[in-house]
Amino acid sequence: MAWPIIVAWIHYIGIMLLLASLLGEHLLLKPELTAAQAGTIQRLDIVYGASAAIVLVTGIWRMFLEKGASYYNHQIAFHILVGIFVIVALLSIYPTVIFLRWRPDSVAGRGQQLAQAQFKKIQMIVRLEMTLLLLAPLFATWMAHGSF
Question: What whole-number distance in Å separates Cα of residue 14 and Cα of residue 136?
């Protein structure tokens, strides 16, 4: 049975893309952005969203291909992991909306200038997302092993 291996591989690639795109956003984000930098952040955010969808879909798929839903539903670590994923998804809404609003300026070749408070808010959200995502492997490992 190759499907569980292929789905797990796609899941891991999705996780790596998710983290890499979020780190890229963090590294590029600054109060004043050129059109190219703003466009790159927008593309990274698209990769971030797409990779999050891949992680979600393959994670659900793995649940059914591997140990079964009943195994995971009885694991507190599974519920914490899902909670982390939901919190990160909700946190990502604000930066994504801001980045989407840049689209007309990006198409016109104009950069972006963020107010200091808005820059700090986006920066804090991205850092919080990265921190939460760094906790996810702890709960995934705990879930896979069944208990502490």
Answer: 14
Q: How many residues does the chain have?
A: 148
Backbone φ, ψ for residue 80 (5° rounding): -65, -45
Q: What is the pLDDT of residue 68?
A: 85
- Per the structure block, which two tokens stand in for 113? 């200038």
Quickly tell me which residue has 């016109």 as its tokens.
Answer: 108
pLDDT in tens, 45-77: 999 999 999 999 999 999 888 888 888 888 899
Reported confidence tier of residue 128, pLDDT bands at 50, 70, 90:
very high
CA distance 146 to 123: 35
Radius of gyration, alpha carbons of the chain: 17
Calpha distance 102→141 (Å, rounded): 39
Angle between helices 35-65 and 76-101 (to 10 degrees): 150
Compute the distance between CA of residue 76 and CA of residue 79 in angstroms, rounded to an integer.
Answer: 5
Q: Which two tokens stand for residue 61?
A: 């798929």
- 30: alpha, beta or left? (left if phi > 0; alpha if psi -120 to 50): beta
